[in-house]
UniProtKB/TrEMBL annotation:
This is Phage-related baseplate assembly protein. Transmembrane segments: none annotated. Residues 98-189 form the Baseplate protein J-like barrel domain. It comes from the Bacteria. Residues 290-377 form the Baseplate J-like C-terminal domain. InterPro entries: Barrel_Baseplate_J-like, Baseplate_J-like_C, Phage_Baseplate_Assmbl_Protein.
Length: 379
């Protein structure tokens, strides 16, 4: 929206006085308490109110200037909606000291953080071997000390993204269960789509309304869920063979992977907009494991173990954030030392190895780089 030429209260009153004086043949009294001063200030108050209404209307009538619920109502006129927040899920370990009898962890049972601020609930998961629909939960057999249970945060969004070991309190008493813990960081909770992201996706959505275009397919993929993206390669099968009228999609849910359910959802979304007689295939990205090792020297006054942990975290984040495009991606060998030097306290970096060597790594559009705490070693 172009900047509107607004005026302050004092400017409105001053302009009123200037206009009156300019049209009068003699000096006009505009001192405080005068009749014309009172009229000017009354008119200025009304003008300021009208100006505010105009600004408010201007802000609410365009997506670029609307925010929050106002933006949602603007989108609703076109049948478009903001993508909702996603509740975090994790595998929680339910354990006991004496594994004598069989125990069932029922659906709906809860665990919380120590302060009770974050709560997770047991949910059904047919892919978990311990889940039994008949028993109504997860079975912990006699003689077995622990079982992993699928749980979901009771509140959607990033509130459920907690550190490993944080979910350590039973919210529901369960006979035969003594303690609980999550063995890994929970990181898959997603906040509701931001105003900026929703506006960007709306533009893509509008551009693809005609269907049967590259933009329409990109919009369909992006609309499946938050952080979903796809690399589209035309006239080529997944194995590299040329096939006209066919396109390959490598979809990524933002974590470098794609579940079977997400894969089916992407395929269904594309099916609704693909051109007639054109066929396609949807595939998950192949995670290309990256191993890194290096030795660092730390400055005096710094704890070496703390600095190495910070360097390791920085390297993992950097590698996993490299975006794969239709032409693939490259991980430069020299960038690893550069990442380490950005951490405060690092004075020297030596013995840097990338997958056991000193060359850049290159992957195809079908792959994504994957680094973990087990594959990145900093001494």
């Amino acid at each position: 929206m172009a900047n509107l030429n607004t005026q302050s209260f004092s400017a409105i009153v001053s302009n009123f006085a200037a206009a009156v004086q300019g049209s009068a043949s003699q000096l006009i009294d505009f001192t405080i308490g005068s009749v014309l001063r009172a009229i000017a200030e009354a008119m200025g108050g009304v003008a300021l109110w009208l100006q505010g209404l105009i600004l408010q209307v201007a802000a609410l009538t365009r997506a670029a200037t609307s925010n929050g619920t106002d933006l949602d109502s603007w989108f609703a006129q076109f049948g478009f909606a903001r993508e909702a927040a996603v509740a975090a899920e994790t595998q929680e370990t339910f354990s006991r000291y004496t594994p004598t009898n069989q125990t069932v962890i029922p659906l709906g049972a809860t665990v919380t953080t120590a302060d009770g601020s974050v709560s997770f609930t047991v949910i059904a998961d047919a892919t978990n071997a311990a889940y039994s629909a008949t028993a109504g939960g997860y079975v912990l057999p006699a003689g077995q000390a622990s079982v992993n249970v699928t749980m979901q945060c009771t509140v959607a969004g990033t509130v459920g993204n907690v550190a490993a070991g944080a979910l350590n309190t039973l919210g529901t008493a369960i006979a035969g269960v003594d303690y609980v813990s999550n063995g890994a960081n929970v990181q898959n909770g997603i906040a509701a789509e931001t105003d900026t992201a929703a506006r960007a996706r709306f533009v893509l959505w509008v551009a693809g309304l005609g269907g049967a275009t590259l933009i329409a397919i990109q919009a369909a993929i992006a609309g499946v869920q938050q952080n979903m993206s796809g690399i589209i390669v035309e006239n080529q099968q997944y194995n590299g063979q040329t096939q006209y009228g066919y396109f390959t999609v490598v979809a990524n849910d933002g974590s470098g992977s794609l579940t079977s359910t997400e894969q089916a959802n992407v395929a269904n979304a594309i099916e609704n907009v693909r051109p007639l007689t054109v066929t396609f295939g949807v595939h998950a990205p192949v995670q290309d494991a990256v191993t890194v090792s290096m030795t660092i020297t730390t400055a005096s006054g710094y704890t070496h173990s703390t600095v190495t942990a910070a360097v390791q975290a920085a390297l993992i984040a950097y590698i996993n954030e490299i975006e794969t495009t239709a032409s693939g991606a490259t991980l430069p060998y020299t960038s690893l030392a550069a990442q380490a030097y950005q951490i405060e306290g690092v004075t020297n970096v030596t013995n840097v190895l990338l997958n056991g060597g000193t060359s850049d790594l290159t992957i195809t559009y079908q792959q994504v780089f994957e680094a973990t705490t087990g594959s990145v070693t900093v001494n």
